Amino acid sequence: MRIAILSTFYPFRGGIAQYGTALYSALKEQGHTVKAFTFSRQYPDFLFPGTTQYVTESDGTEPLESEEILDSINPITYYQTAKSIEKFAPDLVITQYWMSFFGPSIGTVAKLLKHQCKVISILHNVIPHESRIIDSPFTSYFLKQHHGFITMSSAVDKDLRSFVPQAASLERPHPLYNHFGQKSDQKKSRQQLGLDENKKTLLFFGFIREYKGIDLLIKAFNQLDDDYQLVIAGEVYGDFTVYQKLIDQNKNKDRIHCFNQYISDQEVTIYFSAADVCVLPYKSATQSGVTAIALHFEIPIIATNVGGLKELVIPGKTGEIIQEADSVLIEEAIKDYFGKDTSNYPSNIKALKEDMSWDRFASKLIEFSETIQL
């Protein structure tokens, strides 16, 4: 099958680019002819909340050949992108959707192609965590241009049906990343990060945004004894000042270790290898790529009961679920986790991993696409 993927790819950085690259590789390995199409401009610089949109030399990211053609704010390129994809003559076009800002650009390309080939979208989010006035009209427009959808949680599928009740969709969990390498020695990893080798180590990993509840985790950590240490690793989207104030006021601040920076692929291993458990204190969520990374490294997860997180975090088997995004409940869940026998968790995670490979995901995607009739 000839497959075009329109998404963020190298030289752009971040989880969506990593996702697209992993899917591209899985489809290629199955013998499909695949071509990647990406942005010439993803965001105008003034709209981007992080330090840079682009891969840097220190990231160590492997280049992926793609056609850099779509400018998110230049409608002329919407038509140019559709023409270029049409020239490739795909049987299937796959897009990704994670933010309503891209509804007009990617949606218009899909609209121009949907009468010529099958067009499906992988939906990371339908309703954004941080709402804007453009969300509903842009999302509605985008969804109407596709024949089918892949959703990675029941929460996303429910949101999809609030816009398109009869949508053709396949629900599959976020596959586990395998490009970060293997777990390394915990003691050495802690030494590399300047951590105490013997303390119970909590990890908050990923872009720091308000909805992810890092403030709740910092408040919860204030109530833990000195057996614990907290690692916060990820680039801040916005202002870290409010979190820094909470840290400065925290009686356990000397055991809070902040790495407020973009974490390169090569560095990811160190943080997860150093951790005993990954904590996701999210106030809202659909699904999270961080769960896929944690499970890849066979690190249990403590997560709030929001969105689709509970679909992979199975209490007593792969982690623990906190019923509400509340600092007291987060504190209690952490204490409960370390107070019980968790020796079976790694074997449970290994069993879950078998069904969450990129090869399995790619196969299910192709099977789903074959059920769609133009």
UniProtKB/TrEMBL annotation:
Superkingdom per UniProt: Bacteria
GO molecular function, one term: glycosyltransferase activity
Domain Glycosyl transferase family: 185-337
Pfam families referenced in this protein's UniProt entry, alphabetically: Glyco_transf_4, Glycos_transf_1
InterPro entries: Glyco_trans_1 (IPR001296), Glyco_trans_4-like_N (IPR028098)
Ranges for domain Glycosyltransferase subfamily 4-like N-terminal: 14-163
Protein name per UniProt: Glycosyl transferase
Origin species: Flammeovirga pacifica
